[in-house]
């Protein structure tokens, strides 16, 4: 349940960033700061082209929807 709430929060943040057109690096840094503040460790965030197959969870969209940020535990 805790991970679900974290994911919902991250997706909310990502939606806001998409509307504002933030850079991928800026959004990635904000997501990492949020995770670190919640005490999450042992994760990685990766910027990939939209639609790239991945085994992680998409937690953000950036560069006007052309890239995605993927969270892996």
Please, could you describe this protein's structure?
It comes from Pseudomonas hormoni. It holds the Pfam family DUF1161. The chain is α+β, with helices and mostly antiparallel strands. The protein has one domain. The protein is built from two helices and three strands; from the N terminus they run ααβββ. A three-stranded antiparallel β-sheet has the order 1-3-2. The model has no long low-confidence stretch (mean pLDDT 83).
Q: Describe the biggest sheet?
A: 3 strands, antiparallel
- C-alpha geometry: globular
- Following the backbone from N to C, one meets helices and strands in this order, namely HHEEE
What percentage of the residues does DSSP assign to strands (E)?
A: 15-25%
What is the number of independent domains? 1
Our count of helices gives: 2
**How many beta-strand runs?**
3
Can you lay out the helices and strands and say which pair or pack?
Elements: H1 2-20, H2 24-37, E1 44-49, E2 57-62, E3 67-72
Antiparallel strand pairs: 1-3, 2-3
Helix pairs in contact: 1-2
Q: Quick gist of this model?
A:
The protein has two helices and three strands.
Label this structure with key terms.
DUF1161 domain-containing protein, alpha+beta, 2 helices, 3-stranded antiparallel sheet, DUF1161, 73 residues, single chain, globular, 3 strands, signal
């Amino acid at each position: 349940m805790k991970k679900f709430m974290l994911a919902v929060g991250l997706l909310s943040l990502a939606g806001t960033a998409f509307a504002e057109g933030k850079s991928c690096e800026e959004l990635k840094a904000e997501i990492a700061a949020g995770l670190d503040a919640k005490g999450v460790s042992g994760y990685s965030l990766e910027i990939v082209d939209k639609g790239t197959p991945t085994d992680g969870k998409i937690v953000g969209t950036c560069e006007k929807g052309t890239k995605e940020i993927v969270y892996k535990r």
